[in-house]
Design goal:
CATH architecture: Orthogonal Bundle
Strand content: 5-15%
CATH class: Mainly Alpha
CATH topology: Arc Repressor Mutant, subunit A
Radius of gyration: 12 Å
Distance between the termini: 32 Å
Number of helices: 4
CATH superfamily: Winged helix-like DNA-binding domain superfamily/Winged helix DNA-binding domain
Shape: globular
Helix content: 25-40%
């Protein structure tokens, strides 16, 4: 992946406001990528300084290997998490529906 694409993904993740979440697919689409997997790759390799915990699966569930920490951080920001799934409504899902 070229550096411009990599940085675009980082910029989008960095722009997700506190108390909200976005899906890997949403980030990929906003970055012009066809695959959501590339977002996970960027975050795993170069995302420690980003709000990586705000990026979830489209179902609102975290990746199993980081679930406990991800849920802890989201809850601390005020995101409603029920049965290990983040709430999807306009209040939490970003960007909000028009």
């Amino acid at each position: 992946m070229d550096e411009a694409r990599h940085e675009r993904i980082r910029e989008i993740v960095a722009s997700v406001p506190e108390g909200h979440w976005v899906s890997y697919g949403d980030v990929a689409a906003a970055a012009g990528e066809r695959s959501a997997r590339v977002v996970g790759t960027v975050l795993s390799q170069d995302g420690a300084d980003l709000p990586w915990h705000r990026v979830l699966r489209s179902t609102g569930t975290p990746a199993p290997h980081i679930a406990v920490e991800q849920i802890r951080r989201l809850t601390a920001e005020g995101v409603l998490v029920v049965d290990a799934r983040a709430a999807k409504g306009q209040r939490y899902r970003w960007p909000p529906a028009p």
